[in-house]
Amino acid sequence: MTKPTQTDLQTSSAVPESAPQTSLDPYAEIVLPENSLLAEADVMAFKQTAAQVQLPAAALQQWLVLEENRLQSAAQEKIAQQKQQLEQWAQQTQQAFGTRWQEEVSKAVRAADVFGGPQLRALLEETGLGNHPVMVRTFHAVATRLSEDNTPGAVCNATTDKTFAQALYGKN
Fold it and tell me: Do the domain assignments include residue 51?
């Protein structure tokens, strides 16, 4: 027996021209919906697992559609829960302040604006914490305490300063 040469090995392993050309990625035709919630890394993990168990591309496509639907449902459920929580906080705040809740909440909003500015206001609105009863009570308390005293930065109403002797013995 003779040892095969390099050219013999190349010709024997060559793919005949009549064989169909296949892609290196058997799952190249997998398509995800636009704005998919599946991360690219997750899709790659699905593809690797499918390749290990020799799952057909059509079955992987169905698997990814099911996963996408599961993620969409979970996201919608989370949004619904957040909306319900915000509504619950708003109701609790209304109950806490009674019939004057709009006036009292507007005081809290002014205090938040004075001390936190537009950035705090945007944060409270973005997160929904602006409706939380504890936040409203806190800023309402700040506004109430400030209205009892002078507003920060306001001109003092005090007359001239008294000396120690004048404070003890009066003007005489």
Answer: yes
